[in-house]
């Protein structure tokens, strides 16, 4: 029986933005978006979203917990421009103004199966002390007009930044038809098996006997 040759492959991203560690701040929320090349299109799910506001619990770690779900599927003919997840965290300052507490980005994992990522966060800083004081007083901290610039890198070399906090994300990745197009994203092992019937590759995909 003849099999059709696919013209594109699929990448399905499931997971969640689990939480964050910002020792100096509380009552924070997170915005996210996916950034990818021109050859990539979203076929289902959401490419951007916003979590609920969360505060630190009584646990010893004092972490911020969101457990906000991620679920989207991309279609492409080339791995160039592989999607990245961009996260930006916001919260109130001492005057109650909503200000950015950190930006960060990570590539979506290339291999099928479960993955965990800890994303280092940073914030832009004013160059001069007077600018810093004025920004603090007026509640207008330096921030990017478009957070997607974090994943692009263009112009980042002239931006002064300061490291601040971490965001933890979990992924479960599935791919379809990548090997048929000549792209091998992982070793051939029982833990990373591609179904002959569905074409999906995932660590949770049952092995056909």
UniProtKB/TrEMBL annotation:
GO cellular component, one term: MKS complex
Domain of life: Eukaryota
Keywords: Cell projection, Cilium biogenesis/degradation, Cytoplasm, Cytoskeleton
Any GO BP annotation: cilium assembly
Residue ranges, compositional bias (Polar residues): 190-209
Annotated region described as Disordered, given as residue ranges: 184-209
Compartments where found: Cytoplasm, Cytoskeleton, Cilium basal body
Similarity comment: Belongs to the B9D family.
Purpose of the protein: Component of the tectonic-like complex, a complex localized at the transition zone of primary cilia and acting as a barrier that prevents diffusion of transmembrane proteins between the cilia and plasma membranes. Required for ciliogenesis and sonic hedgehog/SHH signaling.
Assembly, per entry: Part of the tectonic-like complex (also named B9 complex).
Name of the protein in its database record: B9 domain-containing protein 1
């Amino acid at each position: 029986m003849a099999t059709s040759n696919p013209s594109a492959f699929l990448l399905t991203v499931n997971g969640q933005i689990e939480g964050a560690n910002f020792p100096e701040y509380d009552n924070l929320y997170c915005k996210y978006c996916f950034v990818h090349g021109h050859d990539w299109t979203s076929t289902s799910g959401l490419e951007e979203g916003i979590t609920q506001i969360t505060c630190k619990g009584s646990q010893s770690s004092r972490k911020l917990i969101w457990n906000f779900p991620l679920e989207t599927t991309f279609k492409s003919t080339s791995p160039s421009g592989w999607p990245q997840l961009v996260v930006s965290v916001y919260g109130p300052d001492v005057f109650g103004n909503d200000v950015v507490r950190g930006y960060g980005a990570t590539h979506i994992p290339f291999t099928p199966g479960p993955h965990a990522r800890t994303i280092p966060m940073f914030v832009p800083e004013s160059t001069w002390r007077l600018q810093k004081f004025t920004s603090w007083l007026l509640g207008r901290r330096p921030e990017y007009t478009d957070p997607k610039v974090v994943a692009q890198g263009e112009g980042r070399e002239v931006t002064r930044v300061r490291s601040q906090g971490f965001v933890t994300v979990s992924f479960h990745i599935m791919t379809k038809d990548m090997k048929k197009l000549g792209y091998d994203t992982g070793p051939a092992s029982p833990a990373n098996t591609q179904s002959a019937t569905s074409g999906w590759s995932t660590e949770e995909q049952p092995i056909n006997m």
